[in-house]
Amino acid sequence: MNKSISLSFQLIKFTWSLLLITGFGGAAFGATFTVTKVADSNDTQCNSDCSLREAIMTANATAGDDVINFDPAVFATPQTSALGFGDLHINGNGSLTINGPGANLLTLDGFYQTRVFTIFDATANVTISGVTMTHGRGFSTLSYGGFGGGGILNQAGTVTLNNAVITGNTDGGGIGNGGTMFVNNTVITGNFSGGGSGGIYNYPGTTLTVTNSTFSTNTSNSSDGGAGIFNAANVTVNVVNSTFSGNVASSNGGGAVTHISGVLNITGSNFSGNQVPANSGPSTGGAIRINGGTVTIAASTFTNNSARSGGGILNNSGGTLIINNSTFNGNNASNGGEGGAIANGGALTLTNTTISGNNSLGNMFGGGTGGGISNSGGTLTIIYSTVANNTASSGGGVSASGGTVIARNSIFADNTAGNGAPDFGGTVNSQGNNLIENPANTVITGTMTGNILGQDAQLLPLGSYGGATKTIPLLGTSPAVDAGNPDNAPAADQRGVPRSQDGDLNGVFLPDIGAYEREAIGFRVTKTADTNDGACNADCSLREAIAAANAATLDNVIVFDGALFASPQVITLTGGELQISNAAFGIIGRGADFLTISANNQSRVFSISAGAAAGITGVKITGGNMQGNGGGISNSGKLSVTTSVISGNNSANFGGGIFNNENGMLSLSNSVVGSNTANVGGGLFAFTNSNLTILNSTVSANTATSNFGGGISNNGGTLTMNKSTVSGNSGCGIYNGGTANVNDSTISGNVSGSNGGGIFNDALLNLFSSTVANNRSNVRGGGIYRNAGTVTTRNSLIGDNTAPNSSDFYGVLSQSSYTLIEDPNGFIITNSNGGNITNQDPRLLPLGNYGGTTQTHALRLNSPAIDKGSFFGTTSTDQRGRIRPFDFPLVPNSSNGNGSDIGAYERQPNDASSLPLFDFDGDGRADVSVFRPSNGTWYLNQSTAGFMGVAFGAAGDQIVPADYDGDGKTDVAVFRNGTWYLQRSQLGFTGVAFGAADDIPVPADYDGDGRADIAVFRQSTGVWYLQRSNLGFIGITFGQTGDKPVAADYDGDGKADIAVYRSGTWYIQRSQLGFTGIAFGEATDKPVQADYDGDGRADVAVFRPSNGTWYLQRSQLGFTGIAFGLGTDKPTPADFDGDGKTEVAVYR
């Protein structure tokens, strides 16, 4: 019996021990270890004296799920543990959780001698939190090459990383993942790898999930790229609510992520400032490079990433990329690459996505395609998206050089390109309802149903208007509002606003075109009378609508009844000013030509109180009259004025047009402030601590009786002016007593009775890539008068100004670089940073319309400002929106310059020369001149260079004067029996055999390179023979016997078009717009084609000898008839006064 009891006891003891080990048949019990020391000791024991290494080793040897904690007394302050015994090995003997004290309290330092953690087994399940891993070095291994992860190498297990920092690791970067990883609330920064990703390298077949984490300033110096994350073949990776910034892949891309194949999902994440150097290999991608697999991106933002191709993303031929509800802004492809935001060679679908403000810049060898997106061989589908305000050398919005592009319900607008295809270059397969603002060089196939072509999209600036990403709203009068197709429309827009809304409040609910759906909350003005009965219902005045909006708690819009305001209407205020207070809403007029709001000189028009936010668009504000400040508008809140006209207002004090009060924020875009009057600040006045932004606007013909800012007076505020013109103001163009940043703008034709015709400076003035010309003061500083403060100029032109003393600049110029100042007298430069030019005529054309929304001074072909600037610190386009720089290959650049032009105007290869015929001295004005066949002499009465006689030619010669060498001066030349004799002012004499004796010479610039080409029209065959200086020889059959050749630039693209006049009909083959035939004139009329309205396009026109009348069909100003001349007179139209418009003239 005793023996039996003893046996039973031994059995119970054995069973209890087994249960202790096995955990009662379930998971094994583990142990909890506490690290009590910082030092990296290794005595294999974890007791009261326990290092992290000793804790891990003990846990490795202990079956079960173990936990390692840290003594809070020891780790209450930041500690660094230097790993002196190699990396910390973790095996698969149960799970292990390491609960660090906090990444700011514990740093594990490998001192570039060892990796920090290595997880060996496939069965390992490790969680690490609250530590920093730094200076780890991932030595090469047989199975993982050089990609072993300096911070962590997970060979096959499952690793979760929480609230950790992985920084400064090398030779394999931060993490090498060979199994499954979860990375949460972790910062991975400043890691480097020469053979893989700087951040995380995922080996083939692995899985990674990243949530709420940051990848920044990691570097990959290998051909794999992916400085943040590299995904090898067949991986599954999910990234949620994370940030990738400042990562650099020095070769091949992508700057943040490279994906070889498998599945990558990115949601709610930001990619900013990642890059691949512009001189890297052909496969790039500033943020992401995709070689294969499927990548889905949602609700994410890509900003300021850069690479040679695919500034944001490069999707190669094997990749499938799906992008939803995301924004790409400020990304850049440079050095002749493609795709500022995205370069696509695979399958790409965009839905509810905004592509805005991206650039693709060419180099001297070309390139620079697709400022927004470049598609070169892949399939690109664009659905309910907005592509706007992008810039490229070719295809500003989208460039389709190959493959297939499909678009529906999308906007392509406000993009710029140097090749005449600003919004879409190439072929688009339309599925309907697309808005292409400028369809030049766009080939549209498919369905045209619902497409809107050649209309202003009326877009507001990119900004935060709700939702997770920035968007571009539509103005209420945008043609895109309610113009989409409801079939297959997404349920919501990019922000999450449901589609469809009644955006124009006409009772019909339809989706808008583009990524933004305009919401239908607002009040409708149904009358012009200024009543105020306290209600805005079916009978609602503007005053009543504003009162209702002031009282509302939600954002609102005020619109105007479409039927009533379909024709021009005037709302005359009888109840005093309109007050906008403590509300956020917009007033959306139907256009400044259709809606005028007048105070009838009895009060101010609008007053915006502090705390209010308002937008005013599409109206004319006039007749304001105040003894105080702000005749038209007084703003103390936040005000945006777009596509409006502020004119004919008066203030006895400050701000005739607009007064921007202390702390007020005023944005003026695509508007005109003109013919307003005040004591100070005739057009606009900005008070202390205010903020005034002016974009694509004109401030002209305003008056300040005090000579302190006829156009603008900035008194202690911040003025930012971009791509705008201040012209023809009296009392100084701009007075600056605060901070003024003037970029890509023109200050011209302003006058002051005192000092400073263009600008009077008393504080801080930065003048970048701008032109100050033709201003006048009665004392000093016709262009700029520096009374006090600091003036810095870069890439700017100051010339052709007048004053009794110091015509262009008076005073101290603090810093100047790449600036042309014509008159060297009256100023000193404290810090000259090179590239400055003085004492040279800038050779400007008169202020005029040379493209863009505002007037500029075009550069003549031989201007010393061409290619003598620096692009550093300036925008990528000039004032007109043309690409900057354009580097003419035959014009030497300034030392350390990059070929951009000095001033607000960047001359393009296809810019019309705008030089009048017979301008022999190149001053922009035609010279009266005659050729006397009896002695073969030219008699030139030059408007600047004076009289001269030139013996050149013989009796029987046909005169063919033109600018053959592109220096801006007409050259004397004759055509004699098939030979051209040219006396070029720059290149000297030449004789060229070209043509036959009976040919009609028709010299003109047929290839748009700024040089006249020799050419003839052969009446016997109707063939034109052109020897183009840039594009070479060509023969073109166009015309028949008896036709009169009338070559000219009829479409304003800078290239002469071949054309003939035949018995009262004009036949024109335009290089941009194609063939047209126009019946205009009679058989006996003399064709006198020329640019009579100064819009850069030749107008069809005839002189009728039978009645001495000129009949002009002007492209801009329409038809007119002018009686000027006799039947025997010879018509000699030319621009004799240099205003850019041809004058009618006769020689009798």
From TrEMBL:
Compositionally biased residues, Low complexity: 479-493
Q: Which InterPro entries match?
A: Choice_anch_Q_dom, CSLREA_Nterm, FG-GAP, Integrin_alpha_N, PbH1, Pectin_lyas_fold, Pectin_lyase_fold/virulence
| Sequence segments annotated as region (Disordered) | 479-503
Pfam families tied to this protein: FG-GAP_3
Which SMART domains has this protein been placed in? PbH1 (SM00710)
Q: Which UniProt keywords apply?
A: Signal
What's the protein here called? Answer: CSLREA domain-containing protein
